[in-house]
Amino acid sequence: MSDGTHVPADPASGDAQGPLHPAATTGGRPSRSKLLAYVALTKPRIIELLLITTFPTMILAADGWPGTWLLLATLLGGALAAGSANAFNMYIDRDIDRLMNRTKQRPLVTGELTERQAIVFATALGVVSVAWFGLVVNGAAAWLALAAILLYVVFYTIVLKRRTAQNIVWGGVAGAMPVLIGWAAVTGTLAWAPVVLFLVIFFWTPPHYWPLSMKFKKDYARAGVPMLPVVAADLAVARQIIYYAVATVATTLVLVPVAGMGWVYTAVAAAAGAWFLYSTAQLYRRARHPERGKLAAMKVFHGSITYLSVVFVAVAVDPFLPY
Fold it and tell me: Where are the alpha helices (DSSP H) in 111-262?
């Protein structure tokens, strides 16, 4: 995919790339700067959040400790699969990343990595992750990992992101896949409990991502990406955020009867959910009365991460409690 921008060729590799960085190579070996660029291509902070949901799901599936080797093997495979999907995403979106202040320092924009390096790296991570799951974990986890990569790269990045304001809603399907992978890694199959956890993350994704989009809506508008905050008023977006937050909290409570969760999880999910709903209501009030001050949408964005982490920590703790 090309954005039509002419860039000079790298005489050493034949690849088209942006400006060369002096620290790109050292004696023919990748420099620290180059290695960090490859790490950045995987979006490690997103990987961290995905693994936070995988780990507790495995504990719940095993009704206790799932085994150190299986846990590490699954987390490694999940990190490789997510890294592959994120690297493909960054390759496909390199044209709009150049137009957005939030993303203009990404390695394909700065020229730290070439397009060929990025696509080879993304493909290698994907192949290794699926093979790893198939050989070391089980076939069900391998197929789900492949599905997760394809959902994020094709369904979200290529099909939805630039075409509909509901892109992040359905893109949440890909972000929710790690809980299915984690459960299948332990049991070799699926059940209603991981489906409920899948829905928790699915409903959580819009109230997590739309506040970020509200903060950077000028960036998205400049890049021609129709995120909901770009095409709708802040008040309408804030209202949608509340709807999805309510669905998220309700689904966390549905897990109680479905998975037989105890009172600790129930109390934590209810308390954290009340706090999360309050933060989204505050956002709605600020959107309704902009004269009273800043929207402070990033408070909801960061708070949503804290909320999800707290809920999944409670999922991980619950199986070890003597009910």
Answer: 115-132, 139-150, 167-187, 192-215, 217-223, 228-231, 234-259
